Amino acid sequence: MKAFWFRYRQNRGAVIGLVILALVLLCAVAAPFLFPRSPWSMVQRPFLPPFTMDGLPLGTDALGRDVLSGLFHGARVSLLVGLVSTVVALAIGIPIGALAGYYGGLADDMLMRFTEFFQTIPSFALAIVLLAIFQPSLAYVILAIAIVSWPPVARLVRGEVLSLRHREFVEAATLSGQSNLAIILKQVLPNALPPIIVLASLMVATAILLESSLSFLGLGDPNVMSWGYMIGAARTVLRTAWWLSFIPGIAIVLTVLALNLIGEGLNDALNPRLRRRQS
Amino acid sequence: MKTFRFLTTVAVIAMASALAAEEPVQGGTLNAVIQPEPPGLMLGLIQNGPTQMVAGQIYESLLRYDTDLNPMPSLAKEWSKSDDGLTYTFTLQDDVVWHDGAPFTSADVVFSVDVFLRETHARLRASLVHVASIEAPDDKTVVFTLNQPFGPFLGIFEVGTMPMIPKHIYEGTDFANNPANNTPIGTGPFKFQEWERGSYIHLVKNEDYYLEGKPHLDEIYYQVIPDAASRAVAFETGQVDLLPGGSIENFDIPRLTAMDNVCTTNAGWEFFGPHSWMWLNMHEGPMTDKNLRKAVMHALDREFARDALWNGNGTVAKGPVSSVTRFHEENTPDISFNPEKAKEYLAASGYDGETLRILPLPYGETWQRWAEATRQNLAEVGINSELVATDVAGWNQKVGAWDFDMAFTYLYQYGDPALGVARTYISSNIAQGSPWNNVSGYVNEEVDALFADAAIQADDAARQELYTKAQDIIVDDVPVAWMLELEFPTIYRCDLKNPVSTAIGVNDGLRDAWLVQN
CA torsion sign, B244 to B246 to B252 to B254? Predict the structure, then answer.
């Protein structure tokens, strides 16, 4: 663990990413304490510019809602969507990839054709279609994002499992009489984990972006204050109140950037052979 | 010297205003926006908004209405009413011809109303039940005989309600599938020239129009621009010079009206009187509780919505009848924004904190924001609610199926409570499946009787008394939560003079409009 941290912090960007993410997490956790009122509360006159009134440092939006409060509460939504949808996507992708890679043959063919079926549809278009079919609520937004983001996981896991499948330790486990399930869970998957972790960190970023895009298009949960919603609601006043889109936009950029930096740092730390930044 | 300069200034101003009031000039091409593209232009068959806006220049009816809803001559130059209120006699204009050259006569009127529109026009048909016979004693005279007095009768001669249809083209044909529907023939000031689908509709001046010197414009192009932001840009760049009410998003209005040489008017919607409210579901669920409905009503900050979302355009509604509609009663029971009162009513109600479903109107940003503000207004007094995301088809389906607790809508009033208000509140108009009838499910026998009685009074004072009583009762029952009397500003280049002079605005006003030639 110490060695891991040592390698991780070799990548300065990754450390910065971690700091930013920690800040976002802090915002998310602190939101209900710092802003106990609903972020939808109309607290002042609309279109108050930032830094013009005490207590409302970022001003108000088209309905007089506190932008800073929206930002904090939006952090909760973005992180929640990012994390949960990634977990769900992993829960779909890992078993499919592992089974396909481990058993090969017909099972592999069928599972991979199934995966490709999803991969051939542009993921954003598929998410829109899914949400048009479902009722747009937070749970369905998460589900839709998970459904469009699991195929890369399945392909990655399959590849890893394929390469591990015929290693000596797996054969040893087979000879010792372990069941296939036990071998997959205890021998193969733990060794396939590092690239999955790296991918997962990037998937969180993608999921946050997807949720923002969906909310921007008005396909998000209309009862949840998210960053994408804030941008979407403000795009119509872009020419008169540009900061209303800019501020949540910055929040998204920073969070996604942080997650990407972390992903890179994890990649460096978990793949010592690929150490690129030695200083 | 100073005095001299002052006098010159006065003289210049006087000259300028003299120039402004000068005689209309002839000629010019008007580019207007039409949104959305109409499904067709045969006004006898299709009466949705954009169709009326274009076809109102092609077709005409017997009367027009000024912005106070007083009838003015159109195809009828004179009209009279018998003392018992049962017989109305119209005398038609001389020398009116259809766009194809055939003369327009009283036989066309009888055919249009009694045959064509009776078959195709549901809204007019509802009024025609009061009409016993329509006769044409000679070429220039039409006599309507009623079964009983019908108060709003003189209000049904608007062009979208009763367009004149050429008998010589449609008699004996299958109206809906007549090929002539694609090349509409009317008597109006402009003739249909060309329709490039998805691009523009081109109308040209009717050289044989019966009014000498009218219309002033040579041609009109209705440009089809599907995206709201592009429509605003088209106006900014000068590609179009007339934006009919509702053709751009509200938040673009201040920007456009701040431009040089841009004029705007809120007039021209009086006949429609668009009235917005939330249906409150009285069929089942928490909204059956009158105290909860009153709590909702008092919780709504409608001034804020008007100022923040509608740029201050519109009037806070006092009840079911719009202030631009006839027989509006100003002194209805108080339904103003009052959170304290709302909390009192809420405490008296059986509301137990459950989450109510609000259905926003899926007509763009303004309505979405409005629903958000409403949800917040309700939360402030302790009513939990959530927005149900929906598209137009889903909205129609859900409202028609009574699958909501509160649902935004707005409807036209057509100038008279009997034509556009009663339908929302009378119990005989409750039927699942339509989002336009008495959707709330409001049943009050007294209100039913008042509306029925008021419609068949010949005397306006008697009608006012009945409608006042009905409005008092309805406002006290709160079957819907009234929001705003909407106003849709018409925005146009100031070079265009007089585009709005009637109660239906640019729908039939371009007859009298003219362009300053630079």
Answer: positive
